[in-house]
Amino acid sequence: MGPDEEVIIRGIPISKGIGIGYPLFFSGTEEEWTREILPQKEIEQEISRFQEALEKSREELEHLQQISLVQSSPEVKAILGAHLEMMKDPLITHDIEQKIRETHQNTESIFHDLIEEFKKRFSSLKDPYFQERIRDIIDISRRILTHLRPAQRMKMTEVPQNTIILAHDLVPSETVEANASFVSAFVTAAGGVTSHAAIIARAKGIPYVANIDLKRFKYTLPQSLIVDGAQGLVIINPSRSTLKKYRELQDLFQIQDDLFEKEKKLSAETSDGHPVRIFANLENPKEVDSILQNGASGIGLFRSEYLCLAKKVFPSEEEQFQIYKKMAKALKGNPLVIRIFDLGGDKKMDVTPDSAEAVYFASIGSELNPALGCRAIRFLMRFPQILESQLRAILRASAFGQIHLLIPMVSDLSELRFVRSEIERIRPLLQQEGRAVAENIPVGCMIEVPSAALMSDLIAQEADFLSIGTNDLVQYVLAADRSNPNTSDLYFSSHPSVLRLIRLVVSHAYAAQKPVIVCGEIAADPLMIPVLLGFGISDFSVAARHIPLAKHTVRKWSLADSCKLAEGALNQPSSAELKQYLS
Ligand code: PEP
Ligand code: MG
To answer: Would you tell me the crossing angle of helices 128-146 and 74-88 to the nearest 10 degrees?
Structure first.
């Protein structure tokens, strides 16, 4: 392709909408690299890329040295001086260059192997001198690696307007900081439809396309990009006519949004008059004030773990109490469902080394399958002191509103029983301290693991309510990672097996006369809403920005038609046929 030629590449559509803007290679907290074998014709270009990165690293170190002189920190100056010396070492200059020529591998791979080799060679030597040398090598390599491509290390909150973020992957704590007025779109190599970054992008209305090979942006970034989040397209250097077409589409979507917006204050009921409640899913407590204005009946899912992800520490009991209390009050008697920390899986805390938090995570170690590992309630049962301070905060806040407590990733009744027994142990202690606690806090279970769905008759007898988390249920039922682009064609929210399980859970909840709500992304899908209505669901929880569309969909359907649609959906033999049937 010519440097300014329009090129269209296809990825996985993650979040609808059209983003037009300037690309920025975002290098977040996760270090990422890919091993590449380069064709002969790219070798010289790769070597110049390495030399430029080396030069920029040297300049950066010299600059830092000058600053340290001004700040009179001789130790820092000495370390930086040593790093500068090491950068002149043939090991870094000549050897790397030679290895690129010999192996045809990209610079990242060669540095990675170098670091691994050093670690292996020196790991048995406990002498602090050698340990320091390994750290120096890692530090220098990192510095060079960050200069290897046009990536910019900046915070999500600092990006300029009309930015299209290109990244290997996005972690939830970064995505949650993105402001839709500045970030026009996300484009990533990794990521799946219901990864937490995807959920947040949709909640914020930021278009997002995943599974894009970012290698093509290795040497130069294009002038401009269009991201079509509905079709999963990334258009590099769009022509004038393409730009015009997409600007017109943007206007059209805006008109549609404005139309739905008008309906948000209307009641959510089917066309034949059956009442439905639409609640909001929330990650950021600061957004609580807009929830009722958006026409929600309350908060159906507060993902409290974002308090930890945002701050990188576990918030104290008092901090949590103040947040929950404020939220409960803002909801003016409407329900607030607080899901206790659902940490682990793709919601990893980016902890500071040597912090108390780091110790917890270190004790778990690195897991081969974190989604099947020490996640959510399993983590909280392993570290009951964290659960205790959250329960104390929730119980204290319960005096200020209608708080419900929700347990994530329940796979056995013992987990519900444990949380209940902890509540009963803590309640009298709080009362002895003279603190007000609501008489009753409903405790619900997320039904997102197949074992819980299959045993939901027994769970429904003991829980106060059930909340169907389809994002996880789908990944566990279909054995298809929700964050992995390689399994995105296997991850079907509307797979017949998933629908059958949902119907089973709803029938169990009905039999036990317990409320049941759906809070996965499926609850905001206009194709799936009538099916869920037909199964008997009347409580939905969706991202606040999807409330108008969810209401609009509910109001369009009669319960009678929804039941017929749902019955037919259950009998579709494959996800492809089901999809066709629904659309
Ligand atoms: C779910 O799994 O459907 C859910 C709502 O929880 P989360 O997406 O936070 O895992
Ligand atoms: Mg879940």
So the answer is: 70
